[in-house]
Amino acid sequence: xxxxxLTSRLLVRPISVDDADDLFEMLSNKDVYRFEPGSPISRxxxxxxxxxxSQDPAFWEVVLQCxxxxxx
Length: 72
What we know:
By secondary structure, the protein is α+β, with helices and mostly antiparallel strands. It has one domain: Gcn5-related N-acetyltransferase (GNAT) (Aminopeptidase, 3-Layer(aba) Sandwich), CATH 3.40.630.30. Helix content is 28%, strand content 19%. It is built from two helices and four strands; from the N terminus they run E-E-H-H-E-E. It has helices at residues 20-27, 43-54; strands spanning 5-6, 10-14, 60-64, 69-70. Strands 1-2-3-4 form a four-stranded antiparallel beta sheet, with no helix packed on it. Helix 1 packs across helix 2. The two termini are 22 Å apart.
């Protein structure tokens, strides 16, 4: 069973394949990797990551409730 954590502004939930666009938006930005290893990814790569992560219950995301945008 998948559960969620809800606060007044955020929703923490398991990642979904539907999150590929938000994932791409974050991980295609070179500034994201300024202090982290790796490099910007392609849209296809984001789709593959979203698919793989959606099948692993260890991967969760943080979503803004106001617009359902993934922020982490």
